[in-house]
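Worked example 2:
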Amino acid sequence: MAAHRSTADILDAAVHVREAARNVASGAAGADTVLAALSEVLDHDHASLARWDPLGRRHITLAGSYPDDATAYIETRLHHDPVFPVLRGPARDGLWLQDVPPRLLAASPGFQDVLSPLGIPSACSPRTAGTSAC
């Protein structure tokens, strides 16, 4: 379990994200520095920074910690997954897999075929289905 951090610590870490992003934009650092700085702001098991390539109609991973199979899914098929509109929607209600409604996770080939077999759980994964976590 992560140690409790003060608001000032979190804000300092957020400023570090901005500095890292500026360094990437200027060419002084790689996108992995932004991902590392984001890790100081919020805890995560895996993360990915990607951009949309409209010509290739796919995401291009700039930095990430997902296994190769998950990264390939994110890059090539995520935008067709029923979970994608929830993760990217204007309400931003599904920034985390645990926030995605269980019915969508059940219909998600990305979760069912890629993330879950890799051991990347959501709050309502088969391991926790029927428990108080769901």
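The chain has a mean pLDDT of 81. The helical segments are 7-26, 31-41, 68-76, 84-88, 102-107, 109-115.
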